[in-house]
Write a structure and sequence with these properties.
This protein has about 350 residues and is an alpha+beta fold. Helices cover about 30% and strands about 25% of the residues. Strands 1, 2, 3, 4, 5, 6, 7, 9 and 13 form a 9-stranded mixed sheet that branches. A 4-stranded antiparallel sheet has the order 10-11-8-12, with helices on both faces.
């Protein structure tokens, strides 16, 4: 499992307050949709509210040794990217979840889903019953290391808050996010941020330009706790340094320097992920040979991320990856992207 209490200094603006100890959890669902009227009315009469929420890539993921409680201290530099799920909240007689999109059949539809748990936690804080239907339109890879489940939790939280007209203070929403899981606060905030502790304590980071990415989606998923377990096995008996954000990487983000960012990308979970899924090495090689400036496993994988020079390069690398047969599909995206956002009518 990930997480902890350590603190890591890094660039950026005001800290974003996180919250309590999180619980790992699922995300998504199956079955089709509900009628959706996009709107963010903060009164009780809204028929539905839809929230768009981005995926993330970890441009740096530094992992400390396992603590006695099983969590790890992290220095986790998040960057939101322009792949999105949409979560629609509609009044209902009881809490239900449905899902559509790629791999929707792999998404839990019960109350282990982070979207459902977000509705329950928000309702409990306000003394309400979580009588809502949550429909998730998936576009973020499922179990792909891009925080799709966390995105759905943050999206459901914001959608229910708007649907029920609660106007919950942002700090309280972030507390609930942190209770849901380590990546959920960033899904609410978006942009770029340094996450410390388990990754839930955020300091927003300045970004000086757009970055272009290609994401190679693998068949199947990788369990985050299993990948952290592999990290513990691989580092057993070694002196694991305390995690710290790279000043070079933070400066590259601040100035929008793609070449400098390419040289600073780092993921301590890449070796564990490759040990569990050796075939990902061929995907990384295929993208690099196609012209990517840098390649790494995204988070705990198995999605792989490729930083490229520009939009044309992204199209070329995506086409080469698809043709290589080393991944199921390849997606292009840009960063940074806004966090969870209520869509207008």
């Amino acid at each position: 499992m990930s997480g902890g209490t350590g603190s890591v200094n890094g660039g950026g603006a005001e800290p974003v307050r996180g919250g309590a100890e999180p619980v790992d959890g699922g995300t998504e669902p199956v079955d089709g949709g509900t009628e959706t009227v996009r709107g963010g009315a903060h009164g009780g009469g809204a028929r539905s509210v839809t929230v768009r929420v981005p995926a993330k890539v970890n441009v740096q993921l530094a992992v400390g040794a396992a603590r006695p409680d099983g969590f790890h201290d992290l220095a986790n530099v998040f960057l939101a990217v322009s792949l999105y799920d949409e979560v629609t909240a509609t009044p209902a007689e009881t809490l239900t979840v449905t899902c559509e999109g790629p791999d929707a059949d792999k998404v839990p539809l019960d109350r282990t889903n982070l979207a459902a748990r977000a509705a329950e936690l928000l309702a409990a804080r306000h003394g309400l019953s979580p009588d809502v239907h949550l429909h998730i339109a998936k576009d973020i890879p499922v179990a792909g290391g891009m925080a799709g489940g966390s995105a759905d939790g943050a999206g459901a939280l914001l959608a229910c808050d708007a649907l029920w007209g609660l106007d919950t203070p942002r700090a309280e929403l972030l507390d609930i996010c942190a209770e849901l899981g380590s990546d959920v606060p960033f899904s609410l905030v978006g942009g770029a941020a340094l996450g410390t502790g388990r990754g839930e304590r955020l300091t927003e980071l300045p970004v000086g330009g757009a970055f272009h990415w290609v994401f190679a989606v693998a068949d199947g998923g990788l369990s985050t706790p299993v990948v952290f377990g592999a990290f513990d096995r691989l580092t057993e008996g070694t002196d694991v340094p305390g995690p710290a954000a790279s000043p070079v990487l933070l400066e590259a983000l601040r100035t929008g320097d793609t070449a400098a960012l390419a040289g600073a990308l780092a993921n301590d979970l890449q070796a564990p992920a490759l040990s569990l899924r050796p075939s990902l090495a061929a995907t990384l090689a295929a993208g690099t040979e196609a012209g990517a400036l840098a390649a790494l496993v995204s988070g705990s994988g198995p999605t792989t991320a490729f930083l490229v020079k520009d939009e044309e390069s992204a199209k070329a690398v995506a086409a080469a990856l698809t043709a290589s047969g080393t991944c199921r599909t390849a997606r292009t995206a840009t960063s940074p992207a806004a966090g969870a956002t209520v869509l207008p009518d």
